Amino acid sequence: MRDTLKHKGMRNNLAETLIGKGITDEKVLNAIREVPRHLFLDSGFEVHAYQDKAFPIGAEQTISQPYTVAFQTELLNIEPGHKILEIGTGSGYQTAVLLGLKAKVYTIERQQELFKKTKLFFNKMGYRPKKIIFGDGYKGLPDEAPFDGIIVTAGAPIVPKPLMAQLKIGGKLVIPVGLDEQIMTLYIRKSEKEFEKKELGNFRFVPLLEDKN
Ligand code: SAH
């Protein structure tokens, strides 16, 4: 598969759809206009890639819906050079959007099959996250902490304490919390001990699973 002007046109339309749904951050919208989502999917989904929908990516996982990717990314308020930790690499689409905002990205995936596939894909495409880790996102990445932002792209039954602890003061954690349905939750670290919490609507994600290793 290649990226063509036709795909670019479909991405512009997708960005318009997202604007219609309330996404306003131009930098986020530009990243959506740039990242060739169809290349992150199996070829059978190519014609559907620019619909605002989630799709299967193997290993019972899904690529998040573009609206969800844009919504979560917008909440992080990324500035160039920000250090961002992503839990749930999956297809790598969200990672690529974060890279499009010039973040330094660390990303963790617990499914070996997806980890390997997406790592190869990043190499092929020239996407350069700082680290792609095969491991358990519940633990975060203490060696690289603190982070300006942490984004969890699977539904978390609880808010993992290590993730809160690995935020900079002023840093943001964006995490969908819940079992069957999740509430998008934003934590902003105000000081060593204080966090501001905001709940921002309902979403549906595949579950954030405990480590099986
Ligand atoms: N950001 C991805 C979304 C993939 S779906 C994308 O844009 O495609 C969520 C991903 O979280 C899945 O790949 C799943 O395997 C992974 N995941 C689930 N539990 C995890 C955990 N404890 N640690 C790391 N990744 C996890």
TrEMBL record:
Extract the PROSITE patterns matched here: PCMT (PS01279)
UniProt GO molecular function? protein-L-isoaspartate (D-aspartate) O-methyltransferase activity
What reaction does this catalyse? [protein]-L-isoaspartate + S-adenosyl-L-methionine = [protein]-L-isoaspartate alpha-methyl ester + S-adenosyl-L-homocysteine
Keywords recorded for this protein, A-Z: Cytoplasm, Methyltransferase, S-adenosyl-L-methionine, Transferase
Database matches in SUPFAM superfamilies: S-adenosyl-L-methionine-dependent methyltransferases
The record's subcellular locations are: Cytoplasm
Q: Which GO terms describe its biological process?
A: methylation
Among its keywords, does the record have Cytoplasm? yes
Output the superkingdom of the source species: Bacteria
Tell me the Pfam families matching this sequence. PCMT (PF01135)
* Methyltransferase among keywords: yes
Active-site residues (renumbered): S64
What EC number(s) are associated with this protein in UniProt?
2.1.1.77
Hey, which family's this protein in? Belongs to the methyltransferase superfamily. L-isoaspartyl/D-aspartyl protein methyltransferase family.
What's the stated role of this polypeptide?
Catalyzes the methyl esterification of L-isoaspartyl residues in peptides and proteins that result from spontaneous decomposition of normal L-aspartyl and L-asparaginyl residues. It plays a role in the repair and/or degradation of damaged proteins.
Protein's name in the database: Protein-L-isoaspartate O-methyltransferase
Please report the organism this UniProt entry assigns to the protein: Croceitalea rosinachiae
